[in-house]
Every structure is written in C-alpha cells, then in structure tokens.
Write a structure and sequence with these properties.
heterodimer, A: alpha+beta, 2 domains, B: Rossmann fold, 4-stranded antiparallel beta sheet, binds adenosine-5'-triphosphate, binds magnesium ion
Chain lengths: ~375, ~250
Amino acid sequence: MILTLAFRNLFHDRIRLAVTLVGILFSIVLVAIQLGMYLGSSRMITSMIERSNSDLWITAFGAKSFEEGGILLTSRERHQALATPGVKAVVPLVVAFAEWRKPEGGSTRVVLVGTDAEDGALEPWSLVSGTWQDIKSPDAISADDTYFRELGINGIGDTAQIAMGRVKVKALTHRIRSFTQSPYVFTTLSRARSLLGAESDKATFYLVQLEPGANLETVRHELLTRLDGAEVLTKNEFEDRSLRQWLFRTGAGLALIGGALLGILVGTVIVAQTLYSSTKDHLNEFATLRALGSSSGYIYKVILAQAGLSAVIGYVLGILISLGILYISRNTPLPLVMTPGLAGALFGLTLFMSAVSAISAIIKVTRIDPATVFNR
Amino acid sequence: MTKPVLECENVVKELGKGAGKVRALKGVNLSLVKGELTLLMGPSGSGKTTLLSILGCILTPTSGTIRVEGEEVAGKGPEELAELRRKHIGFIFQSYNLFPTLSALENVRIALDVIGRKGYQAALRAEEVLREVGLGNRLKNYPSNLSGGEQQRVAVARAIAASPSVVLADEPTAALDSENGHAVMALLARIAKEQNRSVLAVTHDPRTLGYADRVVRIEDGLIVGEERRPQGLDAPEITDLTKRRKANA
Ligand SMILES: Nc1ncnc2c1ncn2[C@@H]1O[C@H](COP(=O)(O)OP(=O)(O)OP(=O)(O)O)[C@@H](O)[C@H]1O
Ligand SMILES: [Mg+2]
C-alpha cells in the first residue's frame, strides 16, 4: 500500500510530476554529458598508452604526457635497458607535436607518432584503408578520417608537409581522436625522426616488454638503477600522469566535474522543491494516517517511495536521452562515453539525490499534528 | 458493571500558549464500556473535540489520567501513542478524511496496512467490512465518485477494519442529509452492539439521540450531565425528551 499511495500521490498532480521528472532528467543528462565527456576525454588521452603492447615505459625525466615526452632518449638508454635482466625487448617510439601545412595553404598542429609496427609495441589500429606496408612506402603517413577538415585533405593520395618534409596520405585510421585536438599522424620511426630533424638514435619513449615470468617491480627497480635522467613508469602510471596533465593541469577535467556537480545540485533542488510541495499538499492525508496509528516511519516510507519512484522514472528517461546524445556525439571531436559503471553510478546518484530531496519533506511531515484531523 | 475499555479521570487540557491559553477541559471523568453507543453533546467550544482527541490518544492531557484497556497512557511518546491508537482505537471524522487517490477498498486496506496487516488476507478483510457497511458494490469507487453518506460509510469501514475495541467519531453526521445521517448512526449503533465495541460519537444533531445507549453532556470543559437511555426508543420520543429537558432547565 505504501507504493500504491506513493504512486497515486505522484500521478495525482501530473504537472508537478512533470516538473520533478524534468528536474531529475536535467540532472542525469547534464551529469551524463559531463562525466561522459570526462570519460571520453580520458579515453582519448590514454588511448595510445592503453593500446601499446608494453609493460613499462621509459621516458625522459619529467615527461608530462604522451604528447610531451620530448625526443631526448638516446641509444645509450636503450642498450642499458636491453642489458637489464628480465627485459625481452625495448621498442623506441618518437612522438612530438609538429606543424602540418595543408595542401591548400594554412597550417595546423599534429601529433606525429613514429613507430615500427614490426616491433609489436604500437601500431596504428583501426586502419580502414591502406595497410602498414603502405605507410612504409616513401613519404607515407596515415591520417584519421575524422580530421580531414582540420588537416585540409580529402583522403588517400593527398600530400601535405610536416615540419621538414613532404608527406603523402597512404592510409586512413578511423576515429583515433586526440584530446589536444591536434590529430594523430602515424609514420615509421625513421621517417618521424627525419621529419622532426632528430638524430637517428633518438627516441621519445622506450617501450619495454618483459621476459615471461619476470617480475615487473624487480625489473623496474633494476632499470631505474641503470638509467639516470630517465623515468620508468608502468602503463597505468603513465596513463595517470597524462590524465593529470591534460585534465587537471589544464583545468578541463575540473570544469567537467564542476559541471556534473552543478547538475546534481540543480536536480536535487528541483526534486526537493516538488517533493516538498507534494508533501505539503498531502499533509492532511499524512495527518490522517498518523491519527489512524501509523508510525512516523510508515509516513517516511511513503515519501521516500514517492522520491524513489520519481527517481526510477526520471532515470530511465534520462538515460534514454543521454544515450541519444551519446549517439549524436560519436562523430564529434569529443565523443561521449557511457559505460555500465557510469550508468550504474548515475542510478545510484539519482537515488541519492532523491533521498536527499526527501529530507525537507520528511522534516515537514515530522511536524504534523494528528490533532488537525478533527478540525477540517 | 463491565470493566471500562477507555476511561479518563480528572482530565484537564490547556490549549494554546501565553495570552491565548484556553482551559478546554477542566477536570473530566468518563468511562466507556463495550457494547454501548455513547453520544457526547454540548455547545460549540465546550471541549468535545478536545476530549475526543485525548480519549483517542491523539492529544495528551495537561493533567489527569487516561487508561486504554487498563493501560496507563501518561508518559508515552508520540510513537507509543500511535501504537495505542492502531491497537485499540478507530476514528471517524466529520469530513471523512478519505484518501482521494485511493479507491474505497484501498482506503480501508491502508488502515490495515498501517497496523501491519498486508496482502491477500487484508484485502479480504477490507472487502468484508465494506460489505458490512453496505458498500459491497462500491469497492472500486474513488471518494469523488461516492456520495457523502457512502464516503462516511467507507470511513466507518476503515475505522472498524482492524477490530478496535473503541470507535471515536467526531460529528459523523454533520455533513450528511437526514437519511444518510440516520444510516450512519444506525451503523454505529450496530457496531457497538453486534460487534461489542465501545462507540463514542460527538454530535450536535438531535436526530442521533434515538440510537444512543447513553448521552453525556459537556459544557465549558466539564461534564454536566449524563443519562442512560432505555433501549429501543425511537427518534421522535427522544426529541421530545430533549425538549422536556430544555423546558426543565
Ligand atoms: N489549538 C488551540 N489553541 C487554543 N485554543 C483552542 C485550540 N483548539 C481549541 N481551542 C479552544 O478550546 C475550546 C474547546 O475546543 P473544542 O474544539 O474541543 O470544542 P468543540 O466542543 O469541539 O466545539 P465545536 O462544537 O465547535 O466543534 C474552545 O474554546 C476552542 O476555542
Ligand atoms: Mg469540535
């Protein structure tokens, strides 16, 4: 009967129900967008590290992110690393921001990633046209099909200039997006070096693969004692560092989290307001219940059930709208991400929000005097 | 004499605060036994509703004692008072106080739900009492689709659903026309006798006298008279009696 009464009270006043649902919806959609952007950004920021087949990353001391590693490591570090027990392979990677001159004039910045796919540490994934063999041909690079406009190209065969040299688009990746909005461009290790004017033994990172059964911490410790001026990070550590750099040093992450908090706050206030006014309208009924001998707990349950029902309905609608927005965002520079975890967290959040909203209504109802039942 | 189910001794109740403080009850003694319909009559402002609220454990007296089924009420908190109400007392209100969003059946069921009687058995019980008050064919109706008399009968059903030993009614017929007023009073009398409950009804309405076993008069916060009425008197005679009383006064 608690649910029945809550349900009827809720649907009794359709306009208020609509306002409540809009409040919850607004919150969920806003929070979903903000956190979806946060997740989407995180995914973009860590995608390269995540996709790499490596156990440890050797970076120059103080490398802030994947894009900002400098081209500072030399073959000396590589040999030292290779001589470390437990290390199976050490794969060099060159990554740097570079100027891209569009074929029709104008320029933009790209992130040039030089890698030798044969080494099995990092390769352009999701190639939709062309192959790694094509990228190995003279002057070849791969570009991403979602960045044609930024790069001023139309597809395979177009030419442009990166820093020191001419390049030709020979392969296309699909939806490898970049948080910095500078598109990722893949080429071979040696071409990257020459385009960037780096010496032929230089690298930005060394990706370390361990012998089977080797202990990660032991190897890391060994590497650290051998290499000075370099850092040795696990994949997770390097991902965290990149995230911190792009999301927190730049304030972008804080803005997203702030937006999410604002959404929660506004939603809670709207729901609290409507729940309070609904409770006020039904105060006489609650007084009657009290006169009939209901415990105050029973009445709280009716109010909480009302809050919970609004939460569930609002959540379902909110998630549907969020998924719609998610779908629309898939081809934008910042595709939103929804995970089961985020969906679950949003549900928990909705319930929490509704429970908090119920507080003012419950306080109101605590003060009712059952004696009022006779004086109507 | 049978043991009283509800009794009060020397009950004083002050209402309001400061300058607006009113002594609504000034030392009331009253006991109610099972199987009787008692009417509480008195002028407006004499303290009828206040007394009913105190007997119903909705208000606590400023001083004096209340016993429900022998249990002392003094010193109980709001939750314990609620427990006493749901165990022993049924209420009927002048304006019915039904839940507008619930059907007749659900209005009765929620009273059972409150005392922890849920599910199918409770639904059966609710249906049973609604049949008892003659609303077997109105189970699914909402209050807005019931006449005043029918609504009050739903309220009566709700009051007796949990089989309380005491039923308290504040002006149960005041909002009803003559015919419906009589129907509700007849119902209350039947509840008292056939179901062996103690029923106390506050009323202004002389039409109700014929149904009473006992009439208690209250004036200015004090019980000023009480009469037992022989069984089976019909309404006109009682009206005469009232007239005679007035003439005597
Ligand atoms: N909350 C209150 N604060 C102060 N005084 C009150 C309050 N409630 C009632 N009173 C006063 O107490 C007295 C008794 O009131 P009560 O409602 O019991 O009278 P009643 O006999 O039920 O009258 P009526 O026939 O008009 O319903 C009245 O003088 C009333 O004004
Ligand atoms: Mg009154």
